[in-house]
Each structure stands twice: as structure tokens, then as C-alpha cells.
Amino acid sequence: MLSVLANRTYRHLLAAQIIALLGTGLATVALGLLAWQIAGEQAGVVLGTALAIKMLAYVGLAPIASALADQLPRRVMLVSLDLIRAAVALALPFVTEIWHIYGLIFLMQAASAGFTPTFQATIPDVLPDEAEYTRALSLSRLAYDLESLLSPMLAAALLTVVSFPVLFTGTVIGFLASALLVVSVPIPSPQPSPPRSIWTRTTRGIRLYFATPRLRGLLALNLVVAAASSMVIVNTVVLVKGHFALNEPQVAIALAAFGGGSMMAALLLPRVLDHMPDRPPMLAGGALLTIGLWIGPWADSFGLLVVLWALLGFGFSLAQTPTGRLLRRSALPEDRPALFAAQFALSHACWLLTYPLAGQIGARAGFDATFLLLGTLAGGGLLLAARLWRDDGGLAHQAEAATHDHPDLPADHPHLATYGHGPNHRHPVVVDDLHPRT
Known about the structure:
It is a multi-pass membrane protein. Pfam families: MFS_1. It is a single chain. The chain is mostly helical. The protein has helices at 8-39, 43-69, 74-91, 98-126, 130-159, 167-183, 198-210, 213-243, 248-275, 279-294, 302-320, 323-329, 336-365, 367-388, 414-419; strands spanning 401-403, 426-428. The two termini are 32 Å apart.
């Protein structure tokens, strides 16, 4: 897996991702404690609303940012957005009102809505080999999991000597270091695409996404992932501090258990995906998440909660890690940024639904009802994913070869020159201008 680190550009980009994630993880812990300080037992509601605002920024702005990114150098865009996020993190320790949290979260996540899909779409251009890209996806998943594991542990250690607002300083340092690492290497330019209107560029990724059956199934699986992870992200601090009457270090331990479970799955996946299509492990991950939510009401001690969070983390990584492979195989290189932005927006639309549900139902009806409601939502998403995403057959890098023809194209068209004309015209098909459906 580590062989991909021989690529200097990827190595620096991965380091930038890890450092920025570590800083973001410190901010996540600090934000939960800030919400508790301001709102007390209503901290889950505050966090749920703040995260819903984050999702609104992601859903509304990611496709627009993707359309604008076609006109800007990737390095300039990535560095500028890192600096914006650092400036916002610098302001968070001075928050005294709930609405301050909401406003700053929107500004920070508006920058992330442009940064993350652009960053994700850059990696396939840096690592064009499918096997290397698969391992890069697992390393990326491990980076997220290390953040989930190490950030709470680092936060717990720091909280023994400093107050929680100091944790936001780590976020500022993380974003600044990320910007420096991006500057230090050449960033591939996006593949040129035909001239299109801003509206066409903004909506192209969404249209390609819904025209591809496996991606419609992925969207349903995104709902499963969102239901389970929302329970963890929104309600961990309230469960640990309110329900179990424990302290801040135990909040960090519970979050670290989720990250540890996810890390175990990410370490196993590269070997699995070398010999198996993406669909079985991703649906298995969705099943683990659904079952974990359904058994949540019986996690009536802190120790059982830690075990449950580790199980949910394992299922989370199984369902999430291969996503980049599906997106890569489903679009031409010039359409990848738009498709990654569409996945970013649509997956976060699922969190836009589940974050406030997790917070509001937890505050109003209790945690048992929240587990069962989110488990029912996840179960429905899992059944829909299995129905929409039929078994592709073959490995994930093999788009389905389909026999078809293009009677409307002139005989000297480059596409026909490559693959031939007539009833024997056959090649792997992704949705594009010449192939509006698969």
C-alpha cells in the first residue's frame, strides 16, 4: 500500500490532507465542548443545526465551485481556500453566541465545499494507474481514520493542560501547513473540456451522476452512511457527558473507537478489492451500519458504546472507501471534477437530513428512539441501494463493455475511428456527450 508514496506529488498532497484533517479533528472536539459550554443539555441540538448549516454549504456550493474551478489553476484555488479556512478557525475561540457558531461554520464549510472535491479529483490525475489509485483511496481513508483516532487522543491530552478554545489553534496550524504543502509540488491541470455555459458546467456532474445506475445506488448507500455517522458525530458528547455522566476524555475515547474501527476496515480493503467487485463490501458495510443502529438501544454502558462505535466505524469505512473507484470508472477524465463535486454535494444532502434528525430526536424523544429511527432510515437506504445498483460483474476498474452504434456520427468521427462503426462497435461505456446512458 505504501508504494504509492514514492510519488512526490501524491506524498505531499497526502501529508497536506493528514495535517489539515488533524487540525479539523481538534476543532470538532472543541466545537462540541463549545456547544456544551453555551447550550448545556441542548448541545446536541446546536451541533445538529451547525452541521446542517455545513451540509447546506456543501450541497449548494460544491457544484458551483466545481464549475468555477474549470477556470482557475488548481493550486491557486486549493491554497486560497486553505487560507480562508485558517482565518475562520482563528475566529472560533472568540465565539460567545450560538449564532456566531452558525455563521462561522457556514463560511468555513463554504471554503471546504470548493476545496474537498477539487482535491479528490486531483488524485486520479496524479496516480493514473488503477492499482495505485485504489491504494491511495485506502490511504486517504486511513488519513480520515487517523484523524478520528488521533485527534480525540491529542485533544484529550491537551485538555489536561489547556482549556478547549486553545484546540482551535491546532486547526489554524493545520490549514496553513496544508497550504504550504500544496504550494511545494506541481499540481496537474484539469483535463480540458468543451466550452459550456456556467449553468451547464454547474449541473453536469449531477446529470452524469443520475444517468449512471451504479451511482444512483451509491446515493442510496450514502443515506445509510449518513444515518449511522450522524448518530456518532452529533450525539457522542451528549451520550457520554449527559447520559453516562462522564467527562471530556471519555468523549475523545468514544470518538477514537469509531476511528479505530474504520481504520481496521481501510487496512483490509486493498487486498479485498484486488479480488472482488466494489458492490459486495460496500453493501456489507451498509448492513453493518444498519444492524449497529438497531442494536444501539442495548448499548447501556460506556464500554458497550465504545464497542458499538468501533463496529459502526468498520461498517462506515467498508461502505465509503471504494467510492472514489466508482466515480473514476463512471466518467471521462475531463468530467471527473464535476462528478466528484456531485458526489460531494449529494452525499452531504443525506447528512443535511440526518444531522438535524439525530440532534432533534435525541433531545426530544431520547436516544433509544433516535437509534431506531435512524436504523429504519438506514435499512430503507440499504434495500434501495441493492435494488438500484445491480451486480456489475468484474472488478471496479472495468467499466461495462457494451455493444452499440452511433448512426448520427459522421464516418470520420474520431470515436468511430478508434472503435469502428456498425453492429460490432463495442467498448467500455461511461456517460458522456456521445453516450447519454449506460
